[in-house]
Every structure is written in structure tokens, then in C-alpha cells.
């Protein structure tokens, strides 16, 4: 980010000794960095279809979002598979806003994050998977059944 600095605060390089007064807008580097963490708002997440796994190519700290439009009202299980340190959270969309429904963190254990939740036909749900591992991505997938 670009921040102003008063005269005398920056000694090197010499051209900034009189102070630094950026235009007060986001730089191209700021925008590029933000897009790595926050996907564009107009990009719809892919569908998570029951009984089909979705491979995840996440790096440390990255997140993947999916939508579920359940074909019937019943209890569903949602979870990750593979070698990862992940958290899975399910939101129900209400009035266009995601509302927390359930979540599970595998807590760095050898077990995968798994949730059982009652999903209602005609409602939309968002599943978010975040990889917490600092050591690498591992081989991971998410599935709803």
C-alpha cells in the first residue's frame, strides 16, 4: 500500500527526503495482491454435486468455494479427502447473504474435516474449504454425499 511520509522520515533514496505523497489510490501491486486472496465478486463458485469429488489445488492459506443446490431435502455429509490440514464450513444463503450452518476443522490431526448437515431442496448452500497447512498443499479433494 502507498502511505504518505513527512519530510525527514525517509533518508534513502535521496529523492524521498522531502517527503512522499502518493496519489492515495491502490497501486497495481495492491490490486494484484488482493486478487490472490479475494476472488472477483462476479465469479460464481463451481457447483459441488452430490457423489462427485472435486479435486483441490490449494496452496497454504488458500480457499476454495463451492455451491450446493441439493436435489432433495435430507442429511448430507460434506468432507475433505487426502493429506491436508483443512477446515470446511457450510453456509446457507438467506436473502442473498451467507449464514453459518456448520463447520469442522481437522485441527492438524490425521483425520479429514467432515460435516453432517440437513440441506433443504430449493435452498442454496456455500461450502468453503481453506487449507491451513504451512508446509504444502498435499493431495486434497472435497465431496458431498
UniProtKB/TrEMBL annotation:
Species for this entry: Streptomyces lomondensis
Q: What is this protein called?
A: Uncharacterized protein
Question: What domain of life does the native source organism fall in?
Answer: Bacteria
